[in-house]
């Protein structure tokens, strides 16, 4: 039987929105197993916005600046606010595990130990914590879920309906379910090539499917050039915070729509908001970094790539600068996923998403 804790600190300072979404099952499982506990989270912006308003979370703290040492300072400040009797961290740099061990009661400081290549990261976290005795594995929901308010869902539905109404031709699609395209990725190595996005737009628009895309989350930099955004081809959602975007994704789910994107934070937000997703995996393996949602469809490019290191992705030759040894201009693994395959998967995601007219399907090549 797991022990009971009254003050819990969760530290996730890996930096990505998707990293935080993968920790959501841990946060919610801890809150469910230790009702009434003060549960605090230290994480980065903008992902922290996903936890504000979450009834499981008592407080969220973020680094106060972007200079070296900011993350350690944020953890130290959280510890100064109160000594937790349980501290859990996904973060191993800058002496943060030692800092927690010196100031907290019980600590679990290595959720990355001994990972197999075929176990989802979020499930691995939960299994380790169950083995450590802080969770009851029988009472855990392993699927990441965002907890949105009624107001947030209503506003998301309003934003979606407004934009669809503006796109009567050809985007409204006669009441057909919308498809949201998420080409942006924080790392170049995770971007499906722009030419593929344009091919997908042509296929889906040719079927009269209403298409949308989120506004870019940051100004383009030289590293972000060629994000794949099909500028001018697809109506763009207004700039939204993450919880507002999650509200739109929830509205897409309410219309039986689909969200398409790479292994990125926004796509994980979509899945955690309840939307059906089609996820495009290249340098990361879906068997380890998949969305964890039974309704998600995962398309893996070049599953046998000899340069992929599923349990040590940051050491891959392509990881930091998208220098693919198999292709000079783009990640070969992602380029290997055809737009026609993605379009066909979108049409069948979670069942017959687009049911009318009869014979509604991607036309054959040629």
Describe what you observe in this structure.
By secondary structure, the protein is of the alpha/beta class. It has 2 domains: 7-139, Rossmann fold (3-Layer(aba) Sandwich), CATH 3.40.50; 150-348, Rossmann fold (3-Layer(aba) Sandwich). Helices cover 32% and strands 11% of the residues. The strands form 2 sheets. It has a 5-stranded parallel sheet with strand order 3-2-1-4-5, with helices on both faces. Helix 9 (286-289) links the parallel strand 9 and strand 10. The chain is globular and about 60 Å long. 43% of the residues are buried.
SSE map:
Layout: E1 7-11, H1 17-33, E2 38-42, E3 59-61, H2 70-80, E4 86-89, H3 96-103, E5 106-108, H4 121-131, H5 150-166, E6 179-182, H6 194-206, E7 211-212, H7 242-254, E8 258-262, H8 265-272, E9 276-281, H9 286-289, E10 297-300, H10 332-335, H11 339-348
Parallel strand pairs: 1-2, 1-4, 2-3, 4-5, 6-7, 6-8, 8-9, 9-10
Helix pairs in contact: 1-4, 1-8, 2-3, 5-7, 6-11, 7-8
C-alpha geometry: globular
Number of strand segments: 10
The count of helical stretches stands at 11
Strand order of the largest sheet: 3-2-1-4-5
The CATH homology group name of the largest domain:
Glycogen Phosphorylase B
The number of domains is 2
Helix % is 25-40%
Low-pLDDT runs: 168-173, 218-229, 350-360
- Give the SSE string: EHEEHEHEHHEHEHEHEHEHH
Q: Please tell me how large the radius of gyration is.
A: 21 Å
Quick recap:
This protein is an alpha/beta fold. It has helices at residues 17-33, 70-80, 96-103, 121-131, 150-166, 194-206, 242-254, 265-272, 286-289, 332-335, 339-348, and strands at residues 7-11, 38-42, 59-61, 86-89, 106-108, 179-182, 211-212, 258-262, 276-281, 297-300. The chain has 2 domains: 7-139, Rossmann fold; 150-348, Glycogen Phosphorylase B (Rossmann fold), CATH 3.40.50.2000.
